[in-house]
Amino acid sequence: MPPKPPPRLDRAPHGAPSWRRIIRCLILRLNRSGEGLKDWETATVSPFGRRGSRSWERKMARLWLIGVLSVAGLPLALAQRDFSGIQITTTDLGNGIYMLKGAGGNLGVSVGEDGVFLIDDQFAPLTDRILAALAEISDAPVGYVINTHYHGDHVGGNENLGKAGAVIVAHDNVRKRMSADQFTAFFNRETPAYPEGAWPVITFNDTIRFHLNGDQVHVMHVPRAHTDGDAIVWFEKANVIHMGDAFWDYYPFIDFEAGGTIGGLIAALDRALDLADAQTRIIPGHGEKVRDKSALAAFRDVM
């Protein structure tokens, strides 16, 4: 059966600003099964302000922009974006763990005697700057790259790093989606497959563990959460969790067309909450700073 067309934008409340109509269209389109829509529509307060306030509307507009660009794989945004002013910043979390920020998803890094272990790699034009930032904390090459999911702002550097010798690792569904054209019904547009050099070369179905840099690193699939290929990464000894886009500094976003579900996202958050304690540092998929268990619980409560 062909995908249903997105709802008409003129079905939004009369007189609403155009971007509010677009947000409503997105919500209706992605929740075509009706799952979770009632709770979202009736919610009055969120961590981002009171529903319907101007502050809430502005932040929801920002959410919509981030969300739909993620669904689209970001090809249009990448083609038009100037990365020349992007700087990579580094936050030291201790025990050889770092968070790097630039453009796109936040990066997690483990460094030590076994080399550099990298979580996500943003966009291809930023690879040299990411490598320069890594060189400030380790003189070892990148040995492994973990992709938390297949969206372009998390896997854009795969091909560059693979050519440099890094082993790309991700869930089975990440490779499946990266190696095939993806059709986005919301835009009525097909995004071509990534070049073969960008595909993960090691894939897993449930959990893969790395024993390196003095830690036990658990890369765990969280089924049908933000997408159908999500993974969260738990550094057991360092007590750090990288959440990918299952958790970020915006209202929850689920890529339904890529297999994400509301129930799956809630289960992913619950799994991370079970791993975390009051001292756990949590790296969000996007956001300005490292978070803690209380922030993760508040995000979960929004769902």
Q: Roughly what is the average pLDDT, rounded to an integer?
A: 82
CATH topology of the largest domain: Metallo-beta-lactamase, Chain A
Main sheet strand line-up: 3-4-5-6-7-8-11
Q: Care to count the β-strands? A: 16
Return the CATH architecture of the largest domain.
4-Layer Sandwich
Q: How large, in whole angstroms, is the Cα Rg?
A: 19 Å
Give helix % range: 25-40%
Distance between the termini: 30 Å
- Low-pLDDT stretches: 2-52, 70-77
What is the domain total for the residues? 2
- State the secondary-structure class: alpha/beta
The CATH class assignment of the largest domain is Alpha Beta
Task: Give the helices and strands as they follow along the chain.
Answer: HHEEHHEEEEHEHHEHEEEEEEEHEH
Labels describing this entry:
disordered N terminus, alpha/beta, 2 domains
Topology:
Elements: H1 18-30, H2 37-42, E1 45-46, E2 49-50, H3 54-71, H4 75-80, E3 89-94, E4 97-101, E5 107-112, E6 115-119, H5 127-135, E7 142-146, H6 152-155, H7 158-163, E8 167-171, H8 172-178, E9 182-184, E10 189-191, E11 202-204, E12 207-212, E13 215-221, E14 231-235, E15 240-242, H9 262-275, E16 281-283, H10 293-302
Parallel strand pairs: 6-7, 7-8, 8-11, 15-16
Antiparallel strand pairs: 1-2, 3-4, 4-5, 5-6, 9-10, 12-13, 13-14, 14-15
